[in-house]
Specification:
Layout (H helix, E strand, L loop, with lengths): L2 E3 L6 E3 L1 E4 L7 H7 L4 H13 L4 E3 L8 H9 L8 E6 L14 H15 L4 E6 L8 H13 L3 E7 L3 H14 L6 E5 L11 H8 L2 E5 L23 H4 L8 H18 L3 H10 L4 E6 L4 H8 L8 H11 L8 H5 L1 H6 L5
Helix pairs in contact: 2-3, 2-11, 3-4, 4-5, 9-12
Length: 344
């Protein structure tokens, strides 16, 4: 397993991390992802640690806390061998203070997460969404208190817009609060919006990307084919409405390119899609999920080798889309690109 710094921090994280959204699955979304219990989770953790994957990502909102509880059971007795990343801010109830990143909400969320995980500290806490109703100074000062108390090691965010992240970093810099070192983002061959603004921001400010849904919300598993209905067992039947939309024409252009590279390399379509992400700037770790041992071992096969430059170029071409304004001139006109060349 390759290890990389998490953004500009000194924390080393594995190139692949494990997403525990399948643990303790409850409800229409997470129940469709998976219903892994503590016994099954321990086996998956065993396999991850044998492969050198020691970062496990979850969230309080995953199955209403059940994911954190199952993960806590799975790592019991080996806390010092693992890194735990969890998230908060999304609603955990209907009360006025059951959502967001206010001081009381963050303090309670961290205490609840520590209890469910059975640990005394969280290695990385990420805000699951930007809370426009709470002053950023209040959010950051609370996180600073939690870091000083030893309950958090590092802080990050997820699903922030560029201005939201940059304003937060500027305020942290001004007041000496802990800076966000990670941004958990959607990024895949069928979802490359991360590249327009958040990637340049991450490179400039030392914020590492933790990539969620690297297979395009289950669309790059190798099971979807042009002109054919969704496979009967696909979770997209239940979860498509919750995930990022994908244009079918572009999806199948990417699938065709992946199929070509799969034949050349002898690797699976998911392995190629994940390996492509591992070559991208600012990516600290790609979060993989698995409902069973077979899926996990398949995804772990995405490391230890690299696509060629020519194969990457083909995948780039198949997945390319016109950037939104104001980014497209810098990608289409030499004069603009001379002043501000794209990263990829």
């Amino acid at each position: 397993m390759d290890y990389r710094n998490l953004g500009a921090s000194g924390l080393k994280v594995p190139a692949l991390s494990f997403g525990a959204g399948t643990f303790g699955g409850q409800g229409p979304l997470f129940g469709a992802w998976g219903t892994t219990d503590a016994t099954e989770a321990r086996r998956l953790v065993d396999i991850c640690l044998e492969a050198g994957l020691n970062l496990f990502d979850t969230a309080d909102v995953y199955s209403n806390g059940a994911s954190e509880e199952v993960l806590g059971e799975a790592i019991k007795g080996r806390r010092n061998e693992v890194l735990i990343s969890t998230k908060t801010s999304l609603p955990m109830g209907d009360g006025p203070n059951d959502a967001g990143s206010s001081r009381p909400r963050l303090i309670k969320a961290v205490e609840d997460a520590l209890r469910r995980l059975g640990t005394e500290h969280i290695d990385l806490l990420q805000l699951h969404a930007f809370d426009a109703h709470t002053p950023i100074e209040e959010v950051l000062s609370t996180l600073a208190d939690l870091v000083r108390a030893g309950k958090l090691r590092y802080v990050g965010v997820s699903n922030f817009a560029g201005w939201e992240l940059m304003k937060s970093l500027a305020i942290a810099e001004k007041h000496g609060y802990p800076r966000y070192v990670a941004h958990q983002v959607y990024y895949s061959l069928v979802g490359r919006d991360y590249e327009w603004e958040l990637m340049p921001l991450g490179r400039d400010q030392g914020v590492g990307a933790l990539v969620w849904s690297p297979l395009g919300w289950g669309r790059l598993t190798g099971k979807l084919r042009r002109g054919q209905p969704l496979p009967e067992g696909s979770r997209l039947h239940q979860t498509a409405e919750f995930g990022p939309p994908v244009d079918d024409h572009r999806l199948y252009a990417v699938v065709d390119a992946l199929d070509e590279v799969a034949k050349e390399t002898g690797r699976s379509v998911p392995q190629i899609a994940i390996n492509w992400l591992l070559q991208r700037p600012t990516v600290s770790s790609v979060i993989i999920g698995a409902r069973n041992e077979e899926q996990l071992r398949q995804n772990l096969g995405a490391v230890g080798w690299s696509l060629t430059a020519e194969q990457i170029a083909r995948l780039d071409a198949a997945s390319s889309v016109t950037a939104a304004y104001p980014y497209f001139p810098y990608r289409r006109q030499a004069g603009f690109a001379r002043l501000n060349p794209p990263i990829v």
